[in-house]
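User: Hello! I'm new to structural biology and keep hearing that structure can be predicted from sequence alone. Could you demonstrate with Glyoxylate reductase/hydroxypyruvate reductase? Please show me the input and the output so I can see what each looks like.

Assistant: Of course. The first part below is the input, the amino acid sequence of Glyoxylate reductase/hydroxypyruvate reductase. The second part is the output, the predicted structure written as tokens.
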Amino acid sequence: MSRPKIFVTRPSVPKEGIDLLRQTCDVEVYNEEKPIPRDALLKGVAGIDGLLCLLTDPIDKEVLDAAGPQLKVIATMSVGFDHIDIEECIKRKIVVSNTPHVSTDSVAEFTVLLMLAVGRRLFDSAAAIKNGEWVYSWSPLWLCGQGLKNATVGIVGMGRIGQAVLRRLLPFGIAKALYYDVFHPIPPAEEMGAIYTPFEDLLKQSDYVVAMCNLSDETRGIFNKKAFGLMKTSAVFVNTSRGGVVNQDDLYDALKSGQIRAAGLDVMVPEPLPKDHKLTTLPNIGKYLEC
């Protein structure tokens, strides 16, 4: 009996996982450490029984057709799975799996890192030292920024990672944690003191607005001109969920005009963001604000 054929789209998938697959399957791994080109993906999936992919790999009808009717399972090494045509997979009875716990702690830590770095103006401070501004510009409130203590933090999307972020914020002495989630109530979050708040009210009240929601038809572009217009002018916006939940043109306008104070982004559209994208022209958007 022939062994199942598996195609893996990136060599950085942990060796332990590949070795486990090779015990029972014939495994081919794309050998370049970058997103697999479309033509290589279409060629690689031909005749396979299983696919192990990443967020950077759009798995649509064309890819499924190229794979053939024997394809039984697609596993993505990610929490999100909107890069996979789920409806088409359902039609073809292809099982789709993800790794929901693989990055919970690291994303939660990085979210708090961004909140601190942007709020406390770490990037501006580093640039000021590099540019020799410290000698001439120091004053008691120079590059003071704003901290987490006594801040109201609004978390949009209180799933595993949202709860992990909240857990890490509590020791900083935040004044209040608000959350918005379509699946409320979220008992674990409320046991930590989080208060369910309608989306627009959360935006109005929060000093930090943190996007932790899944990307769906309902959340695509949810952070738009209207949303930024409801935020405090002193608000810090952080997105470590998915780039598609933000209208980046509206975010640029909000930052450029001072409608919100600053933003920290871990995700964008597209990824990576082109070097000449207008958002990249705003690395020190808070540079000329006092505190």
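User: So the tokens describe the shape?

Assistant: Right, they're a compact way of writing down the 3D structure. Reading them back into a model, for example: DSSP finds twelve helices and eleven strands in the chain.
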